């Protein structure tokens, strides 16, 4: 009997040891499988826009959702209801508590997000930015739609072309004053004007429109009243060109004031049709959303992008020498002739 009990105890001990090994191996294997996208636990990627509910970020969301389905990852697309950094911080805090694998954010104010993004990184979450740069010391990748310098200069050149003159008074509308990408484009546009078109006069500093078409509309009416010799408006942020064009259309000033800006083709079409908006210059935001998720998934699997890499649904990307700045491609000019060819 004693021999039997001793043998039984030995068997129990061996089984316990084996169970511990299997449990430890499963835990390790599960984590590895998640990062490779092959385990039961899918990679979880959170994409945070500046705000939800405006056409540009609605179009980006479509690309994010599509990428999640096609690439086999869980995606969360969430952001504040206004272009407000404090609201964005709360959104990211919530995502940290959900233990997502990647957070890709388009900051309303990069400096305001630094503490919460550092917290995310310290928790082992991969931090990226997209659409707008965040603190570059914290992000693994910075996903840009276009070369910012070239884009801003292109917008300025387009305004001069549509004005049909290399001198005159102009104004600049923007979204939020702290939006890094908008400020970079505006600075590049100003450089282009200063270097090549000294006859152009900026009547006032850039005017904030809070990412709202109605605000841009009212600000444009104010500009037209205050500066009767105004010849051109550059509008940055997707609602701003629409509001400016709405005011020009209402006042019947299509032949007097040229308007160019960063707007979506579908929203721009009515204003492009009658010339109240001369050209909308942007890219395809659904592709930007898709690209962001594709690169986030690769990072979670331990893979870095390469210069010239061909991304499905997007095309060849450019990787800068810093190893973290990704350029999706050149901008697109949406005009009266081609706007209806696009569905965003």
From TrEMBL:
<comment type="similarity">
    <text>Belongs to the bacterial solute-binding protein 2 family.</text>
</comment>
<keyword id="KW-0732">Signal</keyword>
<feature type="signal peptide">
    <location>
        <begin position="1"/>
        <end position="19"/>
    </location>
</feature>
<dbReference type="Pfam" id="PF13407">
    <property type="entry name" value="Peripla_BP_4"/>
</dbReference>
<dbReference type="InterPro" id="IPR050555">
    <property type="entry name" value="Bact_Solute-Bind_Prot2"/>
</dbReference>
<dbReference type="GO" id="GO:0030246">
    <property type="term" value="F:carbohydrate binding"/>
</dbReference>
<dbReference type="InterPro" id="IPR025997">
    <property type="entry name" value="SBP_2_dom"/>
</dbReference>
<dbReference type="InterPro" id="IPR028082">
    <property type="entry name" value="Peripla_BP_I"/>
</dbReference>
<feature type="domain" description="Periplasmic binding protein">
    <location>
        <begin position="45"/>
        <end position="304"/>
    </location>
</feature>
<protein>
    <submittedName>
        <fullName>ABC transporter substrate-binding protein</fullName>
    </submittedName>
</protein>
<dbReference type="GO" id="GO:0030288">
    <property type="term" value="C:outer membrane-bounded periplasmic space"/>
</dbReference>
């Amino acid at each position: 009997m004693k021999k039997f009990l001793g043998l039984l105890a030995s068997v129990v001990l061996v089984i316990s040891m084996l169970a511990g090994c299997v449990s430890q191996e499963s835990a390790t294997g599960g984590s590895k499988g998640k990062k490779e996208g092959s385990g039961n636990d899918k990679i979880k990627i959170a994409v945070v826009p500046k705000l939800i509910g405006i056409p540009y970020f609605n179009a980006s969301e479509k690309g994010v959702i599509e990428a999640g389905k096609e690439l086999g990852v869980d995606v969360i697309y969430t952001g504040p209801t206004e272009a407000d950094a404090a609201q964005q911080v709360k959104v990211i805090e919530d995502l940290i508590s959900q233990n997502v694998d990647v957070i890709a954010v388009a900051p309303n104010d990069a400096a305001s997000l630094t503490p919460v993004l550092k917290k995310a990184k310290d928790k082992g979450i991969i931090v990226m930015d997209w659409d707008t740069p965040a603190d570059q010391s914290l992000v693994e990748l910075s996903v840009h739609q276009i070369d910012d310098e070239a884009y801003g200069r292109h917008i300025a050149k387009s305004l001069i072309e549509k004005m049909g003159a290399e001198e005159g008074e102009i104004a600049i509308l923007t979204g939020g004053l702290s939006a890094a990408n908008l400020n970079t484009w505006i600075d590049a546009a100003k450089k282009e004007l200063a270097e090549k078109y000294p006859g152009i006069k900026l009547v006032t500093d850039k005017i904030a429109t809070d990412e709202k078409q109605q605000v841009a509309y009212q600000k444009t009416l104010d500009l037209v009243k205050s500066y009767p010799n105004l010849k051109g408006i550059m509008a940055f942020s997707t609602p701003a060109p629409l509001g400016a064009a709405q005011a020009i259309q209402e006042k019947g000033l299509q032949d007097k004031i040229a308007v160019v800006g960063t707007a979506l083709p579908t929203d721009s079409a009515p204003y492009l049709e009658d010339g109240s908006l001369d050209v909308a210059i942007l890219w395809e935001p659904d592709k930007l959303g898709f690209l962001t998720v594709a690169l986030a998934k690769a990072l979670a699997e331990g893979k870095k992008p390469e210069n010239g890499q061909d991304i499905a649904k997007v095309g060849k990307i450019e990787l800068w020498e810093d190893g973290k700045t990704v350029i999706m491609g050149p901008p697109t000019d949406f005009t009266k002739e081609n706007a209806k060819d696009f569905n965003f």
